[in-house]
What we know:
This protein is α/β, with parallel strands linked by helices. It has 30 helices and 29 strands. Helix 20 links the parallel strand 15 (484-489) and strand 16 (501-504). Helix 7 (200-209) packs across helix 16 and helix 10 crosses helix 12. The longest helix is centred in the N-terminal third of the chain and has 17 residues, at 143-159. It starts with a helix and ends with a strand. The structure holds ligand MGD (2 copies), iron/sulfur cluster and molybdenum atom (MO).
Amino acid sequence: MSKQLQALEVNRRGALKVGIGALASLAVGETILLHPGEAAAQPARPPRRPNVRGTPKVPHNYKRARKITSVCLNCSTVCGIVGYVDNGKLIKIGGNPEDPNNGKMLCAKGQAGVVISTYPERLLYPLKRVGRRGQGTWRRITWEEAYADIAKRVRACIDAGHPEHVAIHIGRSRLADIMGRFLNAIGSPVLLNHRALCSLNKRAANYATIGDVDWESVDAERCKYLLNFGSNFYEAHQGAIHFLKRVIKGRYDNGCKLVTFDVRLSNTAGRSDEWHAPFPGTEGAVALALANTIVADGNFDRDFMTTWTNTTVDALSAFLKPYTPEWAEKLSGISAGDIRRIARAFIRERPRCAAFTNRGSHAHYNGFNNDRAVILLNALAGSINQPGGYCYAESAEIPDHLFPMPAPVPAAPKIRTDLEDPPEWPLANRWQKMRVGQIVYAYLKQKRARLQVYFTYTLASPTTWPEGRSLAVEVLRDEKLIPFHVCSDVVYSETAHYADLILPDATYLERWGLDARNNYELRTYATLRQPLVPPPAECVNFADVLIQVGKRLGPEVSRYFDFRNYEDFVRLRCRQLPKGDSADGFAYMKRHGVYHNTSEPRSYDLFKRPLTKAQLDGSRTDPQTGIISKRNARGVEEAIGITMNAQALRGFKTPSRKFEVHSQTVAQAAARVKIDDDGWPHYVPIPAHQNLPEDRFILTTFKWNVHTQGRTAPQKYLTEIVHDNPMWINAATARRLGIRTGDTVEVTTYRPRGRTFDPTGQRIGSARIRAFVTEGIHPRVFAVSNSLGHLFGGRSAAARRGPRAEGPGFDPKILSEDADLTTNLWWSQADGGKGAGFNVNAILPIQPAPITGMQAWFDTVCSIRKV
Ligand SMILES: Nc1nc2c(c(=O)[nH]1)N[C@H]1C(S)=C(S)[C@@H](COP(=O)(O)OP(=O)(O)OC[C@H]3O[C@@H](n4cnc5c(=O)[nH]c(N)nc54)[C@H](O)[C@@H]3O)O[C@H]1N2
Ligand SMILES: Nc1nc2c(c(=O)[nH]1)N[C@H]1C(S)=C(S)[C@@H](COP(=O)(O)OP(=O)(O)OC[C@H]3O[C@@H](n4cnc5c(=O)[nH]c(N)nc54)[C@H](O)[C@@H]3O)O[C@H]1N2
Ligand code: SF4
Ligand SMILES: [Mo]
């Protein structure tokens, strides 16, 4: 008898309810056993013939519907949306024409998001674990019990003098304002995030060179030549729709050329004028060779290079000398002829040309320097913040001066811990708190840090993190390492399964929040997320949970939470906003969904803007460097500009106030961890890729256009489109190994080498997966997508049809059953379908890149065997 069944037997004498039928009547205080596991989740009844009719179609009346603005969060692009609500039901999601980034345009995921507030897999009530962790037994409790329990445990940490034993671990949160407030109020610095899994190297490269922002807004509409190093913006990319629509316009209007470097024929590569597949992680070598050609030819923006960078042309030329196209060809496989041709075609369009990156270039051991080398190409083209060039707005965040935090504002705690600031990666938190989230479970296991209360929010670590189903699950299961785990989620996910308390969240269609990202119109803007429909049953925005807990932590904490709820907090943040055509700033945001200062000039030439008299008041100028500095509000002397030709200008927000080709900040950080680095963006060979034997390959991953990370698989329309992810193998390689499409292969992965975590080169594990043979991938690379292979999270996610939800809290009085999910899940293996796909993350190693800590996702060495 399984342990789960034993527990069931023991409990049967008590008040335990079992199975689907009981869910609807589960009352407060009652206990239920759920069946999240593989075996238990088979349909209770024998398979029926699929009901091809599915959910009956109801004609919608869009004209009659009320239109409410809000912000999508089916991915981190955060497009402005308009919800059409008729009779209390959300019937359609369209783009918000007032949003400067996406306007009326949305992607498939944004439109398909309409299902998420009513799909029957939603969590509906707070649940408390009974029995062992991971056993799946839960008791429905009241919110009051939940708040009291959390507050008691947080209070105990504060009283013990260890507020840092409380951590919040987030994926895509968009609740930074209230989370920061909560942790600051209790005195814990431990806000862990996913940035090192996502975009750390790219952001760090922008900070190190330009300084002002972490995210560029390429002015694609006016551009004539785009060099894309590893972004799949036709399908993914943060800000995909925003950028893509401008690229398409630029290509039609200006005949803009698009050249893509991707190891795989992505939809972006396929739609480019040229696709080149470099050997993984050699993007920096290609970029340096392009720069070498440009400098050798002498055709570049000499004025920008001499005036605005922290190097001389001679010094740059000397640095670039060894990085010839022939040298890069040997590493990357891109021919020297192509490199010279592309360099000349690119620079011919200066300054209306831009070179940019994304994960294909930066999610590597050497990704930080790869990206710095790519950004350098824009300096040579003189395209930094020029029309049609590599631009950025003043900020890519919600502007604090327009949306100030309600007073009193708690100060940030002074303590640091290895968990959120591991000393091995000194640049992770240098410019913003990017953390090294993938190391957290390893450090907990090694007892380098202790936790008492661990909150998870929009975090699918068992599915989306390296060593997810292995190390992450091992630590999440361990009640000694994580004594109390509170999970806020919308479905019964693999993270929720290992929680002690599950808090049903309001989805992004049901909650408040301010949001923003980089504005491609290069001006100040912010958006408001507001509920299109109310949350079902007892779902509560996690922001409100934090407020409610804060109110219960005694007067020294509760004084920071002196507002009714998060809506009130957001209202307070809008209090200084111009009221425009509405009663006040908040009403303006509710009506328009967007604040966009169109009277402001676009931020072209931002670095050349003169400092104002007010800015110059009380400043001093260093006679040698011309750097102008001033004491900031905290009394710290801070550079604010630079004197250039007797003018006080803003410059770049770097230590030299110039575009930094080489960086003292980098050199110093490297020295701290005993890495020899002179601060120039050298090409760093990936240790594990050196002398790679013929039978070893690189296992990489990618994202689909209709899925986002671990969050879209429960959404049936998206999973209908993509639910299967066989491994891409190059046709020539497959021929050599005797592999055909549909064959099952066994992939074995190996740990990294070099300056990273556990760099032993040892075997990690093996997994079996089906092959997809294609010309569209580099011969030494295999690729498996993420987003699929769920064990939990509802029927479409797990491809297991059957009656009603497997998730807790299903209540037909609140959410109606979906006939499609009961009988028409045609990708269910029970109906001869392909199943839910494959999760590759268990065998991908934790691999923070040196100095920065970015997860080197795309470097994994593997071997393969046909089975
Ligand atoms: N193999 C592979 N792995 C990858 C990647 C890859 O390309 N390949 N990409 C990496 C990248 S770039 C990133 S950013 C990370 C992302 O990985 P995570 O940061 O873990 O993010 P998600 O997968 O989006 O997290 C989804 C979780 O949030 C829950 N959720 C969804 N909506 C809500 C909500 O409204 N409220 C609450 N409380 N929970 C919600 C979902 O049910 C799920 O449990 O994954 C990384 N992992
Ligand atoms: N549809 C969709 N949109 C998304 C997301 C999503 O999950 N789905 N997630 C959002 C998030 S959090 C992020 S971080 C962004 C990510 O946006 P992107 O970085 O654009 O997407 P990825 O798929 O992570 O990686 C980009 C490309 O890198 C390629 N690649 C893999 N290895 C290498 C390599 O060694 N060299 C080169 N040159 N290319 C390589 C892959 O084939 C892939 O096409 O997308 C955001 N938008
Ligand atoms: S790109 Fe992302 S934010 Fe925009 S509509 Fe699609 S899913 Fe929503
Ligand atoms: Mo990401």
